[in-house]
Design a protein that fits this description.
By secondary structure, this protein is an alpha+beta fold. It has 4 domains: 160 residues, P-loop containing nucleotide triphosphate hydrolases (Rossmann fold, 3-Layer(aba) Sandwich), CATH 3.40.50; 80 residues, Translation factors (Elongation Factor Tu (Ef-tu), domain 3); 76 residues, Elongation Factor Tu (Ef-tu), domain 3 (Beta Barrel), CATH 2.40.30.10; 145 residues, no CATH class. It contains 15 helices and 27 strands. It is elongated, with a radius of gyration of 30 Å.
Length: 514
């Protein structure tokens, strides 16, 4: 079944929750406090089905004190119903919610002008609101005039929602799921809910909770009370998991094992009117965490390169969107550029971040090749660049003066090969009877892989001979060399008696392959 996640946005009391109820009959304000105060406090989730389309709704609060809740819901939006009371126009939270949508790059915004039954001059009011949105540079997909009193525009809106096509699911993206609710059901066990924005998940599949590093098994998958064998991105998803519900929390991230590492810092592109080095709340998915900001460089159009420091581990990925809050107000937001800890000087880092901002990965790879004398790894290419290992390797092979170790996912500048050659020469000068292999070299040159060491050995064919997997000094008889080394080992062991050194120490002493 085709699906789409549609969220609401807009000022308090402009009719967001009432609109959802008019569309699907769901009463979102179920808490006693919500009913007494007649405002939405928590996120509510519901859906609407027709033929082959399932629409998931996320209804958010409009009160200014509940912007954190609105933000956590907005990360799941594919489309937004932006609700404005036609009689009151754009208000404070209308504008703040629009800013959140813009930061999260939610471009499918449907303007719903509510309470039209109370408006005497609908056309004039509509023009004023649309003109203000145009001046604010917010493109609107379509406009609907509605009233829940007489159902004006409700059926037309409902029919239009079913025509909206979701963005195409990228099969290469990895399962990435922030928990927004966790609870236990009798006879079922632990259940989590969240918006699946990337990747897919299959019944009985093994996943990992990155925050606890505990492996889990998906016992059941539900999408609005329907059990499924598999589900893809852009869906609201409930998962039944084989763990105690107390082990999980809102904001925890579920994914596949081996793709994401934890760090307490990142570099990012931030868009904000007035940004200063200070403490803020960093919001990503349903997680909100304190951060310290260090501005690296001010760019044009209210953009900044920024370094974030966190008190706790985060599992961020390249191009991941975030919102910044300070004193419970939206200050700005942006995209993660470098989710890994990268020890670079400020000038170097800004150059690297510009390549990432432009998604010029070839230039970024070339930069890393020159910046890291002893090579850089591609094991974290998905987290670091949103590139699969295959795509990252293909790109690395296009660089000049590099050796790409496909097995170990490392990229080396060929200049560093000279260090391996010099080390081999040093060993031969120290012991002309040394027996070498790529394996023994890699144990001692810790930054170099076996394959890179093998290349160094092969390029020294003018100094080395090769037999039975062993490299040795040119001109030396291999059988006599073996006999000599065996005799040396015997003499050492004989002297050491009943307390001989460990074999690997003896091999290193004699420069022998282990």
């Amino acid at each position: 079944m085709k699906s789409v996640i549609i969220g609401t946005a807009g000022h308090i009391d402009h009719g967001k929750t009432s609109l959802i109820k008019a569309l699907n009959g769901f009463e979102g304000d179920s808490l006693k406090e919500e009913q007494e105060r007649q405002i939405t406090i928590n996120l509510s989730f519901s859906n609407l089905k027709l033929k082959d389309k399932n629409i998931s709704f996320i209804d958010v609060p409009g009160h200014k004190d509940l912007v954190k809740t609105m933000v956590s819901g907005a990360f799941g939006f594919s489309v937004c119903l932006f609700v404005v009371d036609i009689n009151k126009g754009l208000k404070e939270q209308s504008l703040e919610h629009l800013e959140i949508l813009k930061i999260l790059d939610i471009k499918n915004i449907i303007l719903v002008l509510s309470k039209c039954d109370l408006c005497e001059n609908i056309e004039q009011k509509s023009v004023e609101i649309l003109e203000e949105l145009k001046n604010l540079d917010y493109p609107i997909l379509k406009v609907f005039h509605t009233s829940i009193k007489n159902n004006q525009g409700i059926e037309e809106l409902k029919n239009y929602l079913y025509t909206i096509e979701n963005k195409e699911n990228d099969e290469e993206l990895i399962f990435h799921y922030y928990i927004d609710r966790v609870f236990s059901l009798k006879g079922i066990g632990t259940v989590v809910t969240g918006s699946l924005n990337e990747g897919s998940i299959t019944l009985n599949e093994k996943i990992i909770c990155l925050d606890t590093q505990k492996e889990l098994i998906v016992k059941n998958i539900q999408n609005h009370d329907t059990n499924l064998e598999q589900i893809k991105a852009c869906n609201r998803v409930a998962l039944s998991l084989n763990c105690d519900y107390k082990e999980l929390k809102k904001g925890y991230l579920l994914s596949k094992k081996g793709y994401f590492k934890a760090f307490k810092e990142c570099d990012a592109l931030v868009r904000a009117k007035n940004l200063q080095n200070s403490k803020m709340i960093f919001c990503v998915g349903s997680r909100q965490i304190e951060c310290k900001i260090n501005i690296l460089k001010k760019l044009e159009n209210d953009e900044f390169f920024v370094h974030f420091s966190f008190d706790k581990n985060v599992f961020l990925s390249f191009d991941e969107a975030f919102i910044l809050l300070q004193n419970n107000r939206v200050i700005g937001g942006g995209k993660v550029l470098n989710p890994l800890s990268e020890p670079l000087k400020k000038e170097q880092k800004n150059k690297f971040l510009m390549f990432l901002k432009n998604k010029d990965f070839k230039a970024a790879f070339s930069f890393l090749k020159d910046a890291h004398k002893y090579g850089f790894g591609l094991l974290s290419s998905y987290q670091r660049f949103k590139l699969s290992h295959q795509k990252a390797l293909k790109l690395a092979k296009k660089l000049n003066q590099v050796f790409v170790d496909e097995k170990n996912l490392n990229v080396y500048h060929l200049q560093s090969l000279e260090e391996i050659k010099n080390f081999i020469k040093f060993i031969l000068e120290k012991n002309p009877y040394a027996m070498l292999s790529a394996h023994s070299l890699a144990l001692r040159i810790t930054w170099a892989s076996e394959n890179f060491c093998e290349l160094g050995l092969k390029e020294m064919s003018n100094l080395l001979d090769f037999q039975n997997g062993i490299y040795f000094k040119k001109g030396i008889d291999f059988e006599k060399l073996q006999e000599k080394n065996n005799n040396q080992l015997y003499e050492i062991l004989k002297k050491q008696g009943i307390k001989p050194e460990a074999p690997y120490n003896l091999y290193d002493f004699l420069e022998l392959d282990r």
